[in-house]
Amino acid sequence: MAYQFDWSVLWQYRGMLLQGFSYTLGLSLIGLCGAIAVGVIVGTGGTSARRWLRAACGGYVEVCRNIPLLVHMYFWYLGLSALKLPSFWCAILALAIYSGAYVAEVVRAGIQSVPRGQEAAGLASGLTRRQALLYIVYPQALRMVAPSMAGIFSQLIKDSSLASVISVAELTFQAGAIEGITFRTFEAYIGISVAYLLIVTTISQTTLFMFHRRATDVGDRF
User: Fold this and answer.
1) 21 touches 173 (CB < 8 A)
2) For 175-220, what is each residue's pLDDT tens digit?
């Protein structure tokens, strides 16, 4: 027998899908902010003149990148259950720490791609290293790494689907629940596939635009 699609189930359970969409969006946006914060700090530390700091940042990157994200999720949710963190925040911590390691490598590479003479010239003109990084190095580095950062953030949004394993009611979790109720597997998962496509495309393109604009604005003010 030919399979008969019934797309009405998506409308019937739209409340669950909207809730899942909001959870996915929240996970993605807060996780992105956390990954940026972690990545900029660790990536900048990876270019430090202090050997111990470079080693510590490099160790963080290697440890976090080489442990699967699923293990990160279980570590925060089950391994550190004594902290009694809500599953939503456990997922955000896992996403921020895991993706932050990838952001750190991109930031480090971007900083190192800027000729060191430019930072030295800024220091010679009276700027502090923080000011030289903020006004000279970061604007140029951001322009170069913006496409890579957008790619990492797109991956983070898709990785947020793993939060379903720790009972975060995001899109994948809700699709599974709808499939269990209606047995409409194709409709449920095709529906969330379209939703993920919209989220990933919107956020990745917005992120790319914001990085380019931020880098240009900082450079112009300087």
Assistant:
1) no
2) 999 999 988 889 999 999 998 998 888 877 877 777 666 555 555 5
Q: From CA 61, how far away is CA 43, in angstroms rounded?
A: 9
Q: Which two tokens stand for residue 147?
A: 């496409």
Q: Is the dihedral of CA 49, 52, 54, 57 positive or negative?
A: negative
Is 26 exposed, middle or buried (CB count within 10 Å of its CB: 0-12, 13-18, 19+)? Answer: middle
Domain parsing of the chain, residue ranges: 8-221
CA–CA separation, 204 vs 186, rounded Å? 26
**What's the CATH code, domain 8-221?**
1.10.3720.10
Q: Cα–Cα distance between 102 and 120 in angstroms, integer?
A: 27
Predicted confidence (pLDDT) per residue in 24-63, tens digit: 989 988 998 999 999 999 998 998 888 999 999 999 999 9
| Of 54, 30, 36, 53, residue with least CA distance to 103 | 36
Using CA atoms, how far apart are residues 55 and 45, in angstroms rounded to an integer? 9
Maximum Cα–Cα distance across the chain: 78
Please list, in sequence order, all residues whose beta carbon lies within 8 angstroms of the beta carbon of residue 31, skipping any fewer than 6 positions away: 91, 92, 95, 96, 99, 156, 160
In this structure, are residues 91 and 73 in contact, taking their beta carbons and an 8 Å threshold?
yes
pTM of the model: 0.85
